[in-house]
Amino acid sequence: MPKRRDKVAMTDAELQDFIESQKTVQVATINKDGTPHLVPLWFAVIDGEIVLETFTKSQKVVNLERDPRMTVLLEAGEVYEELRGATIYAEAELVRDFDRVHELHMAVLTRNTDIPVETLDKVTRSMVPKKTAIVVKVKRCFSWDHRKLGGIY
Question: Distance (Å, rounded) from C-alpha 119 to C-alpha 136?
Answer without folding.
Answer: 27
